[in-house]
Amino acid sequence: MVHLRIPDTNPNRVVPDKREEGHARGGAAVDHFTLTSYVKMCHNLQTSCLDSTRSKSSLTSSFAFFPSIISLRSGVFTEAVNNLKTSSTPLPRLVETATALISTIAAHERKNVFEYNGFKLELHAVLQAMLDNAESCGGQDSKRYTASAICLCTIVLDDPDNGNTLYMLRELAITWVTHLLFVCLIAASFSTRKDNTPSFGSMKSDWSDGSATLREQLLQREGRRCVVSGLEERSSFFLHGCHIINLPRAIAISVSDSQREVEGDQDADADVDVHSSDAMTTFDIFQNYTNLSREAIRGLEDDDFNDPSNGILLEFNARYGFRHYQWCLQETEVPGRYRVRVYGSVHGLINLDPTNRFVEVKDHSEEILQRVSDQVKCKRRREVPLPSPRYLRIHATIARVLYTSGAGSFLDDLLMRYDSEMRNHSEDGGVVRSWEEFERVVETANLRENPKCPHCPDDDETIRHYLYQRSHYRYARADLVAKLGRDAHAADTLYGTRKGVKSLLQYVADTDRLKDTFGDVTPYNLTDDDEDDYLQPDLDPFDEEDDDGEDD
Fold first, then answer.
1. How far is it, in rounded angstroms, from Cα 193 to Cα 414?
2. What is the distance between the alpha carbons of residues 422 and 429, in angstroms, rounded to a whole number?
3. Residue 32 in domain
4. According to the model, what pLDDT value does residue 360 have?
5. For residue 298, which phi and psi values (nearest 5 degrees)?
6. Least packed by Cβ within 10 Å: which of 47, 97, 316, 398?
7. Where is this region: Disordered (predicted)?
8. d(Cα 9, Cα 3) in Å, to the nearest integer?
9. Would you place residue 206 in the very low, low, confident or very high pLDDT band (cuts 50, 70, 90)?
10. Cα three-residue angle 520-523-524, rounded to 5 degrees
11. In terms of residue numbers, what domain contains 131?
């Protein structure tokens, strides 16, 4: 799980902003909440947090771990961002500073690239896309939040290339990817029942738990036609209701499920706390970026989730593309008129040319009522609410951020690569609720045996190939041969003597091949003078002499 943490930096290193000092001396109004003051405030809060963490922690590492500072649970980074966001600092200045910082990390290839299991993502593109699209999502408040979060990554104001600043920018971008964009992509999978190959019966049951009523309302509103294709529902052609915003409901279910899983298991309480903290981080980012009120988000967790304002009627393939942000409805100047924008290749808009395609949304429920009024005596029904322009705007913004930043392709590739593992993740159809759970799926998948060598795709990774044939490890192999000589090829020496086992473990450590699985396996003592410190005689499976002539 990725957490955004404040680096341990000396607050005395902060250099005053000379431009602000000159501005003050000139007699102009000075903003009390300047970038400099908030960087200093972050340092002060950080120092107290780090001192508290070190006093309570039993870790002996040279750095301290503490909760994500973009999470509501910590309040450190969140408080600083909120204060800068609500200050009178001009928005253009915040955007200018944020843009300069994005350019800074873009120039550092190593810090700028997030690599995960062979897939790479350039983080400056994520920061830029989040900044560019924030205003369309939630207005100027959203843009101020995004720019403020980026600005507060500045650790040393006169040195944007400072390592700690680059670290903060990197972790901020990764947090936005793993705690917002990733969760948006997977939210539909567990906010409603998981999509499998549909049958007519399963399609109907797919809208249980109160959402069957939503589908009926959408059928009335849309005149029993798919919003984007215009196809009408028939006895052999079933249309689906599709939620526009899934994330708040997904967060609520995620926390609720984790609590039920550990019910009666006191030892698992810590797992619930971690999962809840992860969900609250997502909640905080989503609220600030969309500028939805807490009440509105809480409503989307419960009753408002199945309100017609949070749904549109689509055929199955189009619904898949919409739920996975492959396409969206972009608002136009005409109320109720939207332009279809396609971003992904698996959009599901079959036999449609989405180029310059527009959709007009209006309530057809009165027309349907008039059709049946002559045959069935019924009361006049209330109008069905149209889809919320704000919800559609949020959906369109997330789709645009995903695919203009490259995060969409990055996450799609990851999810496709581990699709089968995710399906077998749990008994409920492989529901993965967070990046933390996805990492566990990936870890389990990587532990499974893969016969092919990662560096030699045409060769099986046998023990012999790993030890003696893979050219990628020639330097580590040279050290192994230097230690053991000809015995490096003798199994009884390599696996059966203390010197052999120690040399073998050093080879494994030097290659880094199993580091993700077992960590650092470097032997405790690499000298041959006191070999009993590493392997006790009763653990040796062989009864022979080692190179020093001693019995093992």
1. 22
2. 8
3. yes
4. 92
5. -60, -35
6. 47
7. 1-23, 522-552
8. 18
9. very low
10. 105
11. 11-186
Q: How far is residue 182's CA from residue 331's CA, in Å, rounded to a whole number? A: 24
**φ and ψ of 386, to 5 deg:** -75, 160
Task: Give me the half-sphere count of Cα atoms (radius 13 Å) on the Cβ side of residue 432.
Answer: 24
Instruction: Check: CB of residue 359 under 8 Å from CB of residue 368.
Output: no
Residues 93, 144, single domain; the answer is yes
The residue written with tokens 């997030």 in the block is 114
Whether 473 and 511 have beta carbons less than 8 Å apart is answered as: yes
Distance CA 170, CA 114 (A): 8
Burial of 155 by CB count in 10 Å (0-12 exposed, 13-18 middle, 19+ buried)? buried
Please give the tally of structural domains in the chain.
3
Tens of pLDDT, residues 34-93: 444 444 444 444 444 434 333 333 222 222 222 333 433 456 778 889 999 999 999 999
Average pLDDT over the chain, rounded to an integer: 74
Length of the chain: 552
Same domain, 146 and 216: no
- CA–CA gap between residue 547 and residue 543 (Å, rounded): 13
Asked if the structure places residue 93 within a domain, the reply is yes
Range name among 115-124, 454-463, 532-541 with the lowest pLDDT average: 532-541
Q: What is the DSSP letter of 387?
A: P
Q: Could you tell me the pTM of the whole model? A: 0.67
CB 360 within 8 A of CB 336: yes
Regarding whether 203 and 168 lie in a shared domain, the answer is no
Is residue 87 left, alpha or beta, with left meaning phi > 0 and alpha meaning psi from -120 to 50?
beta
Residue 549 lies in a domain: no
